[in-house]
Amino acid sequence: MPEDSVLPERELRARLIRRMEDGRLPVALPTRINAGYGSGAQCDLCDQPIAAHQVEYEINDARAAKVIELRQNPPRGRGVCSGTGAVSP
């Protein structure tokens, strides 16, 4: 799938809920979020690589002792995974 393919917001929301229910994404608010340029890591929501021109969010998930990677694409500029549809904040 191309890097900036578009998934409907409904599909992203359903994916978000499934991944929270199965434990792949946290339900609780994180205590720390880092942001920077994309490193090529895979987004934990849309499963696409986070390109260098995209904003990459690293969310520390204390319950699982892991880092969750999410992306934001500047052209739409709102929400998480806006390069693949938008899950608004």
Quick overview of this protein structure:
The protein is of the alpha+beta class and 89 residues long. It has one helix at 9-21; strands at 33-37, 55-61, 66-72.
List keywords for this structure.
single chain; 89 residues; alpha+beta; flat
Please render the helix and strand layout as text.
Elements: H1 9-21, E1 33-37, E2 55-61, E3 66-72
Folded structure, characterized:
This protein is of the alpha+beta class and 89 residues long. The protein has one domain (9-72). It is 15% helix and 21% strand. The protein has a 3-stranded antiparallel sheet, with no helix packed on it. The longest helix has 13 residues, at 9-21. Residues 74-78 and 82-89 have low confidence and may be disordered.
Order of helices and strands: HEEE
- Overall mean pLDDT: 74
The strand order across the widest sheet is: 1-2-3
Q: How many strand elements?
A: 3
SS strand fraction: 15-25%
Structural class call reads: alpha+beta
Whole-number total of structural domains: 1
Report low-confidence residues grouped into runs of 5 or more.
Answer: 74-78, 82-89
Between the first and last Cα atoms, what is the distance in angstroms?
25 Å
The backbone outline, from C-alpha atoms, is flat
Helix coverage percent: 10-25%
Computed Rg = 12 Å
